[in-house]
# Entry
Amino acid sequence: MAPLLNPKKINDRLDAIEEMIANQHQTDVLRARLGKLPDLEKLLAKIFTYSIKHKVKAIYFEDVSLNKMKEFRTLLLCLKHLEQTLEPFLDLVHSETTCITSTRLQLLFTGESQGGLLPEKIKDVIDEFEQLIAWKQVAGSNGRVEIPEPQSGIDEEFDNANLKVN
# Structure
């Protein structure tokens, strides 16, 4: 739909592909790890769509809000383990023994604080979010399900209601 037209960017991409082929083992490990992830682009688009919808439509058969929270949690877990997922190439790009010359690969696998594109503070933000929400196991119609609820101390009214239920 929108192919690259800039020869420099095309050559940067070709250099990156050439280096990935030259480091086939790391490429295979990275591909296997990325293959285990859900479709992050689709998940991000869904979450973005959820955030801009203002009208609530009728819900007949499922709890859409719970599904939205589960999808958001899936996205956060994927992002939280981003560094671990990318580890084969992170090690390769930052190794003193290998020489990765592709500017594109160096940017992709270098942290923002060092001029790269890899987000570094995302773990802190995710950890902060995880401290706000607890995922509780409850019995559901299809076995055990997880539901989100505020961590203790966040909402006093919720905590009091939980004490009464327990």
Notes: The first helix runs from residue 7 to 22. Strands lie at 133-140, 143-150. Helices lie at 7-22, 24-35, 40-52, 64-80, 82-93, 103-108, 122-130, 156-165. The chain has a mean pLDDT of 85.
